[in-house]
Amino acid sequence: MILKSYGGLPPHLLPDREIHVIVSVLSGRHKAQEYYDETLKPLLDDHHIEYSTHTTTSAQTVIELCRSLIIPNATQGVKQTIILLSGDGGVVDIVNTLTTDLNRSSDDVRRPSVFMKPVIAVIPMGTANALAWSSKVAQDALQVLFAGTPKPLPSFQATFSPGSKLVTDEGRGRESLAESDDVESVMYGAVVASWGLHASLVAMSDTAEYRKHGLERFRMAAEELLKNVHVYTGKIKWRNTSDEWEELPGSKHAYILTTLVSNLEEHFQISPDTKPLDGSLRLLHIGPEPVQDILRILGLAYQAGKHVTDPKVTYKEIDALRIELDEEDELWRLICIDGKIVAVEKGGWVEVKWLAGSGIDGRRVVELVC
Q1: What is the pTM of this model?
Q2: Are 97 and 332 in contact (CB under 8 A)?
């Protein structure tokens, strides 16, 4: 019995909470349902934990659950724990939907003054599971579920120029992010915002054919992309809280991201200075280097993040990042926000800013068990 070492159920699994298990059946290599049936369900039942189970039927299921169940509960002061069998996408759907909907109703006089942050416990079932590895959950997710402590999950806001579209259906579909194409749109994330090689890798490998290869999908996509390496054109600016924008030298780039996590995969330590849920937003940039140099630098990330000491790498803590894209082909105007891909219009831009962590206005709308 797993609880013998811990002396009873933790507060986030006690009967005074609504407990919901979400099984994301298409995450990663489609192992979530099997894990739930064979491991998690028997364990919860053995410990007489009352819960409701929700199985995803589409990419919208978690978003719909947020709006129909999680948000109404939170704004009525209901304590709730979400046990999430998914990759990073499930957590991000919850963070983005809660933050977006709460902000949308911020001027509504009927909005309740109470907000009880949902607690999320992740059982990582995705491909890379960046958030789970970075927060030390993935090493033993069941131990964390029963012995971990909920902590506020930091997030960032990404604002897009008018006309930006969410890429769907393995790259074939486009959905408007805003109510009309002539206004800016906003998304929220908790892991990474990127342009350049990282975003292109994620976009190219986000198909059923690639996904069946697990983590290998990223290597396979990289080999394809680097056959004819593209140099990305645009302006990149960054700043800290009260400072003016500073521009990175040159208009040509290879790899650009800003992240709240240390690891994008178990062994790919992109930001070694980042500690679990410390809320720091860090910038990493590689300029238009030859393919072999890019591969060498990124290879060092698998050696405990040694790439950040390379003179060809820019690595620093920031509060905001602005990317102004100067690309003709939409293929090179793709932005990655926590695994979701956004196509920016010609001449468009994206601005990412760190969100403070105090109160509802701080937008740390959930807590993560870690």
Answers
A1: 0.92
A2: no
